[in-house]
Amino acid sequence: MSYEVPFSKPGGWSVQKGILLGLIVLHTAWIVIHMNLVSRELINPWKLGGYGMYTTVHPAPALSLFDSRIPGFEVPMDDKDRAKLTSENKFFIFRCQPLTIASLQTFLKNNPRFTGVPLRFILTERKLLRDPIRAERLPHSILEIRWTGQDTFDYAGKICGKIFRGKSELRP
Amino acid sequence: MNVQGLTFPRFADFLMPVPVVKTGENVGKYIRLALMTAMLSVAFEQGLDWFKPGNSHWLFLTVLTAGAVIALAATLTEKYSRIAIAVFGVFFLYDIATAWAAPANHTWLAAWTIPVAILFSKWWEQPLYADYLRITLGVVMLGAAAQKLLAGTYLDGSYITFLSHFGSTTENMFHALCSKDTLNNPCGWHKFLGTFIVLWQIGVGLLLIAGVRSLLFLVVEVGFLLGAGLYADEMNFQVLNIALLCVAFRVGMSYGLFVVCGALLLIDMHGIGKFVQYVL
Known about the structure:
Helix content of chain B: 55-70%
Largest interface: A-B, 46 and 52 residues
Order of helices and strands of chain B: EEHHHHHHHEHHHH
Radius of gyration of chain B: 20 Å
Mean pLDDT of chain A: 93
Number of strands of chain B: 3
Shape of chain A: elongated
Shape of chain B: globular
Oligomer: heterodimer
Mean pLDDT of chain B: 89
Strand content of chain A: 25-35%
Structural class of chain B: mainly alpha
Number of helices of chain A: 3
Strand content of chain B: under 5%
Structural class of chain A: alpha+beta
Helix content of chain A: 25-40%
Distance between the termini of chain B: 40 Å
Low-confidence stretches of chain B: 1-5
């Protein structure tokens, strides 16, 4: 078995050695920050290069859309719309980040059939539960839309125990 | 066999787990083969998205494929290796930057390691680059172990129990070790496996950072990575790890191991579980 002190060959300092050490420090610092964010349940542990995959079930966040007028009535979403909403919301890896208003505006602009319809978005995540051990998909956040005019709407929702609300309008 | 300066591998070379460097031969070509394999794993991971139906025009796909093949081939040469990695790195980092929330962890590991080679004109001869890879892989091993301890799902065996009962074809390979009651109280075998995985990662991480360079250590770790990849049905990450370890230990990758890694990348396109189901 041979042993060699890392970065001992060649000896002395060089620009390259400084860059390599700097990258190692940055990489290590990011992993520590990532763990801190995971421990506060702010991000998906499987993403963002913190090597937290296979530590728990993949949350596999999924967005569903409901017509609030009819309890439990899920409105089918076009695959492209779903993909766009997902990518515009960074694949929901920031777990306490509400749906962005810009993404909602784009979605509603592309789907005039929803104008005037009270809507409810529900984001679900898979969670590892115990007694007995299993995975279940549970609601993680909710966002309601109420139309106040032909082009304007109010929104309100809840994520990570915090309530948010505001007003917006369709993009011209 | 040697034809006009080109050395072709013999059949026996494909049976060796580690390269056997002949008299007068440079180990550099085996190290370049290892990094090329790491780049190949990236190409499979990132590039395949472009090939999904409706994602790209055929002309773009043709140019992309040709560019990747040329860059990978040029990486094997002494003269163009650095520039090939630079070109590959630019497209790779741009691809990550355009959708930075989506990449898997091995894509990030590749971003931290492969493009760094361009700091050196003959990166395959540089102990500094090998040391950088070794410490980076060590840090990643310790980080992965720390994340498992933080989640609290390994020492108590709960995640192994979950995979054993609800995982994919390969993930439930430890199902038979315990009765169904393990869902309420993880059995000793599942606790042992979870604890072993964490301790293994910590041990390997510390040995890598400490600078231990043993061929036996490398062979055992490559074997463990292949086993872990089989279990989790995720071979792309393991191929990247194996290839980077071959560079880090400065022994390079044998032709035999390259063929194995190439086959695993092809199988990984659909998953080992589906492959096993198809074969059985």
